[in-house]
Sequence to fold (264 residues):
Amino acid sequence: MTVPTPAPNPLDRIEEAWRRFKEEGDERSRGALILHYSPLVKFVAGRVGVGLPRNVEQSDLISYGMFGLIDAIDKFEPARGIKFETYAVNRIKGAILDELRALDWVPRSVRARAREIQRSLSELEHQLHRSATDEELAEHMGLSVSTLQDQLGEIATLGFVALDELVDPGERGSAAIGDLVADPRAVDPGGSFEQQESRYVLIDAINRLAERERLVITLYYYEGLTLAEIGAVLGVTESRICQIHTKAVMSLRNRLMEPGQRPG
Fold:
């Protein structure tokens, strides 16, 4: 009786490709890694592209993201023990956003409105000591609710209002998550405490959002639903979910930028 030879495990091939590329500089292995992880680029481009103007082609976003993937593969250190996908997603997204910023396709008026809403939201939430409703924010700014929501929808097309960026301490620049993971061989209790404290502050800030805003953030970032899927769950349009998401992230930004912010 002939015993069938088991099929090779694809994960074993990827691990071998990592080894050959990092230890031997093998270019064929590098190409195999790029090909294997290329679906990540399409995934990230799809999420970044939500709400962008129609003149921004998805194929262009994918092209920008490929540079981020290649950079991630070249700089990734398997020995650090972090998952490559986590590291790469941030690199890919950063490459796409950097290129969009360089193109500067967003009108100055939209950027100015974004700054004004951010400032007004910060002022109002300091007064209220809680999340502000759309009605309260609109009244504070002297706008109708529909005008405010239209402006939030416009701001969402910036493509830069994303919770993912909040995990990067501002004073350290636009580092990816992987850049902030300490070498397991190094002893850095201060850094470990700082990361843990930042995580608590972020969780506390999310928990203090209005119920619908908190639900949108949870479904989008933790459950991986698209804005359209969240809209179907909540029974509202995708554009309305986009507005809720934008306002929620602005609120979180304000709270995380507060000096001496601590969970309470």
About this structure: Residues 27-48 form the longest helix (22 residues). The chain has eleven helices and no strands.
